[in-house]
Amino acid sequence: MFFMPNKVIYLRLKSGISIFPHVSINIGEVADIEGDPFYTHKISGIPLKIEFKDHEEKKVLSSLLLVRLINSYYPEVEVEVIDSADAIIRLEKDRFPFIRFTKLLFLPLVCLLLFIGSAMAIMNFHADVSMPTVHQQIFKILTGEETQNPLIIQIPYSLGIGLGMSIFFNHIFHKKLNKEPSPLEVEMFLYDENVNRYLKVKENTNNNQREE
Questions:
Q1: pTM above threshold 0.90
Q2: Span 173-192, average pLDDT
Q3: pLDDT tens track for 44-63
Q4: Residues 148-166: tens digit of each pLDDT
């Protein structure tokens, strides 16, 4: 008995898609495809051309583009899009040695600026709240004696600042204290999500203006 393949294909765009310049990709690399294996295997291998403008590192990929491309190869197939209708394609440039060298060149400068900025912030905070006076008063309460340099309090306090920051950011050197994301990772994720949402809205607005 002969069975006709199911002509309904389910398409879901992937997230966090990165491609390198001048590298050809296919639909299977940017989307998850489910349905009859007769079609899914062939559709996954359909070549996809994505062009970036000068100095453009992100581009919006619309699911409508993929639907039109699939139907141009297989008009009899019905494509159902699941989840998000758009995806962000990121252009990776790390293959170029010059760019990697530039990043390494700026790394010490960024570390130096962060170190100076953090030190200034901590010193200004301590000056605002008169932290040396607070340490002297705590030392007097605990021991009944007065001293200008209560090192027994100042040294553990200084070590506690570094330890507290490590616990707060969930990192000690290259190891995480637990599997939860750190506050910095959450903020970076939210920033990236907001940028992607902005690019999608801007692309849809430009498309509507061109249609008008």
A1: no
A2: 77
A3: 888 888 877 777 788 888 88
A4: 889 899 999 989 888 888 7
Q: Which residues pair with 9 in a beta bridge?
A: 79
62, 91, 120 - which closes a domain: 91
Segments in the chain forming alpha helices (H): 27-30, 37-44, 63-73, 97-129, 131-143, 151-168, 183-211
Residues 113 and 199 in one domain: yes
Is there a contact between 39 and 5 (Cβ–Cβ < 8 Å)?
yes
Could you tell me if 42 and 114 are in contact, meaning their C-beta atoms sit under 8 angstroms apart? no
Last residue of a domain, one of 91, 120, 145: 91
d(CA 39, CA 88): 25
Cα-flanking dihedrals φ and ψ of residue 209, to 5°? -65, -35
Please give the C-alpha separations between residue 203 and each of 34, 50, 206, in angstroms, as whole numbers: 27, 15, 5
- The two tokens of residue 175 are 């190891």
Residues 6+ apart with CB under 8 A from 166: 172
Contact 65, 45 (CB under 8 A): no
Other C-beta atoms lying within 10 Å of the C-beta of residue 63: 19
- Residues pairing with 18 in the sheet: 90
